[in-house]
């Protein structure tokens, strides 16, 4: 049921977008990610549920194999991310820069970036001047945009007593130096903030990884136990049929 809800929400969010914007940022579209994860989750849980109810060995084996592959991929990703941390950092930087370029093309992506910059108190990838990669915030003199040389409002330092958010608070900030801009916006990039957050929350991330791994391992174990029980029952039925056909039994 959860996977079906995920697919429905993803499809609905995708249909609300303009076709041009959807094609422009397909690789970083949260709606597509939600649909893909929902479909995979539905297929895997369907195999496990129907396989256990119908005592179907093929479906149970498919369920067990899929869970095993997912678990091994998660383990490999964690190990490779730890060993090749520099390359992982470069990949994260590439993803963030791609998201900055398509900031105005996708409302979901825009909300995600704004949320991240607010939560981590950061702006851009390496620095706030990374926003010049976006065609609307570019600092070139030929840029006709009203947001030329600006940064999104989510980069701004907010007053706790401010009732209404000034969405134009980042106007002209890229033209300022780090020292001048730091009085109005977050000048540190989100990559360093993200890395520092990961280092500070290793136990939390480890607990989340363990919480995801334990149900997978339990599912694999239960699927194998049920498969072995079904095979034992089949062998027992064949054994009884053979002896019933034996006239000396």
From TrEMBL:
It comes from the Eukaryota. It holds the Pfam family Tetraspanin. The chain crosses the membrane at residues 31-50, 62-84, 202-226. It is found in: Cell junction, Adherens junction; Cell membrane; Cytoplasm; Membrane. One of its GO terms (biological process) is protein maturation. One of its GO terms (cellular component) is pore complex. It is a multi-pass membrane protein. Keywords: Cell junction, Cell membrane, Cytoplasm, Disulfide bond, Glycoprotein, Membrane, Transmembrane, Transmembrane helix. One of its GO terms (molecular function) is enzyme binding. InterPro entries: Tetraspanin/Peripherin, Tetraspanin_animals, Tetraspanin_EC2_sf. Disulfide bonds join 122-155, 123-139. Its main location: other. Belongs to the tetraspanin (TM4SF) family. This is Tetraspanin. The gene is Tspan33.
């Amino acid at each position: 049921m959860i996977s079906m809800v995920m697919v429905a929400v993803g499809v609905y969010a995708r249909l609300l977008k303009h076709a041009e914007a959807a094609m422009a940022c397909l690789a970083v579209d949260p709606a597509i990610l939600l649909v893909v994860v929902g479909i995979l989750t539905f297929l895997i849980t369907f195999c496990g549920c129907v396989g256990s109810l119908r005592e179907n060995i093929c479906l149970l084996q498919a369920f067990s194999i899929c869970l095993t592959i997912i678990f091994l991929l998660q383990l490999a990703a964690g190990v490779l991310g730890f060993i090749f941390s520099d390359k992982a950092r470069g990949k994260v930087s590439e993803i963030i820069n791609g998201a900055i370029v398509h900031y105005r093309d996708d409302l979901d992506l825009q909300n995600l970036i704004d949320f991240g910059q607010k939560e981590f108190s950061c702006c851009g990838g390496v620095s706030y001047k990374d926003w010049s990669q976006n065609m609307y915030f570019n600092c070139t003199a030929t840029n006709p945009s009203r947001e030329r040389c600006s940064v999104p409002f989510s980069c701004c330092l907010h007053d706790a007593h401010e009732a209404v958010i000034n969405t134009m608070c980042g106007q002209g900030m890229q033209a300022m130096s780090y020292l001048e801009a730091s009085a109005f916006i977050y000048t540190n990039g989100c990559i360093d903030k993200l890395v520092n957050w990961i280092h500070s929350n290793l136990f939390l991330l480890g607990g989340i990884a363990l919480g995801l791994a334990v149900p997978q391992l339990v599912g694999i174990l239960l699927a194998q136990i049920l498969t072995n029980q079904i095979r034992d029952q089949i062998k027992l039925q064949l054994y009884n049929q053979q002896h019933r056909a034996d006239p000396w039994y």
